[in-house]
Amino acid sequence: MAPYYLLSESLLRRNLQLISQVAAQSGAEIILAFKAYALWKTFPIMREYISHTTASSPFEARLALEEFGSLAHTYSPAYTQEDFSEILRCSGHITFNSLSQYRRFASQVLAYQEHPVSMGLRVNPEYSEIETELYNPCAPGSRFGVLASQLPDELPQGIEGFHCHCHCESSSLALQHTLEHLEEKFGKWFSQIKWLNLGGGHLMTRKDYDVKLLIDLLRSLKERYPHLQVILEPGSAFGWQTGCLVSQVVDVVENHGVSTAILNVSFTCHMPDCLEMPYQPAVRGAETLPADYVWQDAADRQAGKPVQGYVYRLGGNSCLSGDFMGSWRFDAPLQVGDEVIFEDMLHYTTVKTNMFNGIPHPAIVLEHTDGTRETLRQYAYEDYRDRMD
């Protein structure tokens, strides 16, 4: 059996309902970040709850216009002249990462007549509680955003908004702290702007997230600056805990007492964030153990000590040596053909997968609210071949 990502429409709607409630109660607009979730065949469902999306490239901006059906809120670290006409065609908001980018492209925005386009600047409050450096956009030396010390007292012509992004699967308490730093550094310009985009990373659909605090913070912000339209653009919050990656065991190997179940999926190709962050995903029916526990288990078995269950590494079916993670404990020994199901694999997975080594890409399957399943996409050899033209 081939592997597949399985998305639950019921769980997706659960998240969308909560996000819609937060927007209604807080007065903020909440839009979808394509960088985390871009399964366009589910956009008809999402349009029942939200109106806009955020893009960071010409292709994402085009997806917003042509598939979601509305103009994108677009930000890019650096626009190019070759792409900017397409960015204009597809965007209702364009945020510049630097003043030099503004100077290069602002005249084209101001002269554009097809539809209104609001310009903004990404600002960097030099504060973030993200602990993983790879994901921290506010670290010293970051390429993202204009510092307060770099802004003139009067904002450049046509700038109507600020955009900042300081979070990654963060809490509402982190937002509270961020707002304090943001207002301290950039509050003196708030009277000159019309909108404030607080970026993504607001994981409001996580069970332990303090949604009430989020709503209170956004209401309070609106009370202090009633003229500002407040925007949030989470990505993971939409796809959080909405589905899984279903794989199968294709072999079990042993080396120095360490057992590895080789699967018909790949961490490198199909779960890249697991290796990048890194984090060890939950596996249905298995206990997640410290990564190096396989060595302790092997030593205990070789010494004849009592052990509990069956401990495995899980390995991807690519030729990359580091395409494995572990350890997990299973109640029974794994056999060829057994299913191994990785939980919570619908955000930052399908948007980041690759076809390295020609590893077959898992299908994408939607389970509707009535329990029926629809294959949204089945990948084939031609998908791999045609990337190499």
Order of helices and strands: EHEEHEHEHEHEEHEHEHEEHHEHEEEEEH
Class by alpha and beta content: alpha/beta
| CATH level-four homologous superfamily name of the largest domain | Alanine racemase
Task: Please give the count of helices.
Answer: 12
What's the mean pLDDT score? 95
What number of domains?
2
Q: What is the helix fraction of residues, given as a range? A: 25-40%
Distance between the termini: 29 Å
Content of β-strand: 15-25%
Biggest pleated sheet: 9 strands, mixed
Shape: globular
Poorly predicted runs: none
CATH topology of the largest domain: TIM Barrel
The total count of strands amounts to: 18
| CATH architecture designation of the largest domain | Alpha-Beta Barrel
**Would you state the CATH class of the largest domain?**
Alpha Beta
Radius of gyration: 23 Å
Task: Give a written overview of the molecule.
The protein has 389 residues and is of the alpha/beta class. The protein has twelve helices and 18 strands. It has helices at residues 9-26, 43-46, 58-68, 81-90, 99-111, 172-186, 211-224, 236-239, 267-270, 272-276, 293-302, 381-386; strands at 4-8, 29-30, 32-33, 53-55, 72-76, 91-96, 118-122, 159-163, 195-197, 229-232, 243-255, 258-263, 287-288, 310-315, 324-330, 339-343, 363-367, 373-377. The strands form two sheets. Strands 1, 11, 12, 13, 14, 15, 16, 17 and 18 form a nine-stranded mixed sheet that branches. The protein has a nine-stranded parallel sheet with strand order 2-10-9-8-7-6-5-4-3. Helix 1 (9-26) packs parallel to helix 7 (211-224), helix 3 packs parallel to helix 4 (81-90) and helix 6 runs parallel beside helix 7. The chain starts with a strand and ends with a helix.
